[in-house]
Every structure is written in structure tokens, then in C-alpha cells.
């Protein structure tokens, strides 16, 4: 089951519509969990193609489930968030279907380590948030293929220092 919310955001002269799908009932203690279908009612006259945000919040997900069918159903996802789910492990294969996302937010989980090639397929990524996890270090080349990356956040971890050339190849502004 999932719920969708419509949030109009007003910026100076532009009106940007955001339509979010929040997945509920997720239990992913094994790396073999696959979400094959989602169901729910759309708000107003929205459709699957209008969903541009996919959020998993306060669920039980040690691993990111295989969401390739969900990404196919909601082909315009640009924002993917997993908040407060007890997420411990990240796998490149589970993130690969999200090639079009510009925001990846993994706030308040239990991630201790990130393999160096985990984000390599997310070449459109502009914003990466790893706040409030248990990270002690990050691989030197973790971001090297993220040429569009502008914002990186990893506060509230146990990281004492980043490698000298950690941000090479990115467009980090903040």
C-alpha cells in the first residue's frame, strides 16, 4: 500500500508541482526482497506518470528492496528518500534503476559503510544526503562519477576526515 501527496511549491515566478508516493508496509531484512506491485488511489486527477518523488519513511528496511518495477511504474522519479528505516546496507544494483534521480536522501539510518561504486550509475544526481548514520569513513572515489553533484551532506556521522581529493570531478557548491 502507498499514499500519495500533492505539494505545490511556489518559487518567485514559477509554480512547481511535486507529487510523492510514500511506500508503506515495507519489511526488508533480507537483500532478496522485491516490491513487484504497488496499489493505492491517486489524488485529484494525477496519474502514475505524475509521481516524481518516492519516499520510504519509518519502515523496516535493513536493505533497500528491489524497486525496479516501482521505478518502471513511476518513470519520472527524481527524488528518492529512505528516512529512519534502519537501513544498514547499500548495494549498487538496488540503486541502478534510479538513474534519473537528482536527489538521494538516506537520512537517519544505520549505514556504517558504503562500497566505492555504490552511486556510479546515478550520474544525474545533484544532491546526496547521508546525514545521521554511522559512517566512519567514505571511499576516496565514492563521488568521482557524479559529475552533476552540487550538494553533499554527511553530518551527524562518525567521519573524522574525508580524503583530500574526495570531491574531485563534482560541482559541489555546498
Written description of the protein model:
By secondary structure, this protein is mainly beta. The chain has helices spanning 68-73, 92-95, and strands at residues 2-11, 14-23, 27-28, 53-57, 60-61, 79-83, 103-105, 127-129, 151-153. It is 6% helix and 25% strand. The strands form two sheets. The protein has a seven-stranded mixed β-sheet with strand order 1-2-4-6-7-8-9, with no helix packed on it. A two-stranded parallel ribbon has the order 3-5. The longest helix has 6 residues, at 68-73. The radius of gyration is 16 Å and the shape is globular. It starts with a strand and ends in a 21-residue tail after the last strand. 25% of the residues are buried.
Amino acid at each position: 500500500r502507498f499514499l500519495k501527496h500533492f505539494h505545490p511549491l511556489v518559487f518567485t515566478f514559477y509554480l512547481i508541482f511535486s507529487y510523492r508516493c510514500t511506500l508503506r508496509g515495507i519489511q526488508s531484512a533480507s537483500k532478496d526482497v522485491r516490491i513487484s506491485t504497488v496499489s493505492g488511489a491517486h489524488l485529484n486527477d494525477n496519474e502514475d506518470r505524475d509521481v516524481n518523488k518516492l519516499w520510504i519513511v519509518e519502515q523496516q528496511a535493513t536493505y533497500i528492496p528491489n524497486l525496479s518495477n516501482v521505478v518502471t511504474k513511476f518513470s519520472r522519479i527524481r527524488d528518492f528518500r529512505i528516512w529512519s528505516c534502519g537501513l544498514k546496507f547499500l548495494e549498487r544494483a538496488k540503486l541502478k534503476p534510479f538513474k534519473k534521480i537528482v536527489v538521494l536522501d538516506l537520512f537517519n539510518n544505520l549505514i556504517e559503510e558504503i562500497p566505492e561504486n555504490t552511486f556510479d550509475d546515478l550520474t544525474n544526481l545533484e544532491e546526496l544526503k547521508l546525514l545521521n548514520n554511522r559512517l566512519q569513513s567514505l571511499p576516496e572515489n565514492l563521488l568521482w562519477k557524479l559529475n552533476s553533484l552540487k550538494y553533499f551532506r554527511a553530518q551527524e556521522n562518525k567521519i573524522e576526515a574525508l580524503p583530500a581529493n574526495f570531491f574531485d570531478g563534482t560541482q559541489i557548491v555546498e
